[in-house]
Amino acid sequence: MAAALPKTSPFRLLSRLRLEEDPNRAFHLFQNPNPSSTSNRRPFRYSARAYDLIICKLGRARMFPEMEVILDQMQRETRFTPREPLFCSIISFYGRARMPAAALRAYDRIPSFRCTRTSRSFNTLLHALLSCRDFAGVRELHRALGSTELGVTPDACTYNILLRACTSLHDARTLFDEMRERSIQPSVATFGTLISALCADLKLDDAFMVKDEMLKSFDIKPNVYIYTSLIKALCKSEKLELALELKNEMLLDQALNLDSAVYSTIIRALFRVGRKGEVVGILEEMKTNGVKPDIVTYNAMIAGFCEDKEFDAVFEALNEMEKNGCKADVFSYNTIIAGFCKEKRWRDALDLFEDMPRRECRPDVVSYRTLFDGLCESGEFGEAMAILDEMMFKGFVPGAGSVRRFVKGLDCEGGTMSFRAALCGLAKQNAVEPDVWEIGGWQYVDGV
């Protein structure tokens, strides 16, 4: 006779749940921890930690119906009260899944578990709705802050999230004033959100006024994020000298860790304004300050050299990347392919494209579209046809404008049956506008 399996204790269940990687098996294990037990045994005593583990496992796996089953079961527990952080996790799971209504329902349900809601869960809900781009829901919660029914006291984090949801600078200013009226001390994140919004609209004078105000009125020093926002906006506005001054200001503050993002932005701007000779000095400064060039830095240089048609320098940059242990990514190669195509050097573009797998970088849809466009622009419709076949095999399609140019060019040379078959394949994927068929005098009917 086979020996009876050892009973699973609440402690043993915790251990098994931690080790179980399959969320579906974990769900069934939780529901029936002792499958061989008799029906007259006492109910299993689940711990609060066991509920936390299974709910988070199911939430991360987006097994929401199963997660709700466990929540219903937990709601009937009387031996413990669930903690608010668990509900914050549930709200976040729904937010990441773009399910704002479910996130709101999870928040509304918290009191039914005898758990008190605080600004922590409210802020989590706000963030979830913002992630879902449910701006109407965010505004509704903002209006509810003024009611006593909500029972939540907003904090700086609350207003930081609300500021991120603002669609106009006027709304952001109004929110900031409301924050002050509630005697809520703004944080560096508050000012960072305001300055980032101003920089996005290139309202640089206002952005610098906010920067001065945070120092003088609140004794809050700008962080790297604020400086980076300002420097990017200055570079975009071609106010490079001011950007360099801010960079030097950062160097004087030992509390700030000047990173490669700032240097990469400045390098890109130097190329754009025709001051590429100063790039070497910036790279030396990076080395002196212990900032290692990363993929963004090298891609900024590659883009600059491509714009200046200095392709030898482009490949020198690629070699330098390899020496420094920085692997070129698909963006790097797409930039070079686009540069070659712009100069009608389609053979060089095609060679690099075909060499990408050897360089351990797989072409993406942008790679194919860029090369296809370049071949069509150069009148190399035979080569473009080959790339189109490969694109379709990989599930990619060119843009509608590229298809039109391709059809016109190939029609002038005399369309082929393989071309018509490819066009039918594109039509199935809605990549061909109806009037394109008229160019070749054909009609698309049921994919044939």
N-to-C SSE string, H for helix and E for strand: HHHHHHHHHHHHHHHHHHHHHHHHH
Q: Count the E strands.
A: 0
Largest sheet: none
Mean pLDDT: 87
Radius of gyration, rounded? 30 Å
GO biological process, one term: mitochondrion organization
Protein name: Pentatricopeptide repeat-containing protein At1g53330
InterPro entries: Mito_RNA_Proc_CCM1, PPR_rpt, TPR-like_helical_dom_sf
Keywords: Repeat
Describe the structure.
With 448 residues, the protein is an all-alpha fold. The chain has helices at 10-19, 23-31, 48-60, 64-75, 84-96, 100-109, 119-131, 135-144, 156-164, 169-181, 188-200, 204-216, 224-236, 240-252, 260-272, 279-288, 295-307, 311-323, 330-342, 346-355, 365-377, 381-393, 400-413, 417-428, 436-439. The chain starts with 9 loop residues before the first helix and ends in a 9-residue tail after the last helix. 33% of the residues are buried.
